[in-house]
Design goal:
The protein has 33 residues and is an all-alpha fold. The chain contains 2 helices and no strands.
């Protein structure tokens, strides 16, 4: 889980990209539960 998040952050170096990745990951986690 943490490794996947770090991979996304490394893949999108821009602040906007990181914000979208975090939002997308949060939605995926919420839908998973």
């Amino acid at each position: 889980m943490v490794v996947a998040i770090l991979g996304l952050l490394a893949g999108c170096a821009t602040v906007d990209g990181i914000g979208r990745d975090i939002s997308g990951a949060a939605r995926r986690v919420q839908s998973a539960f």
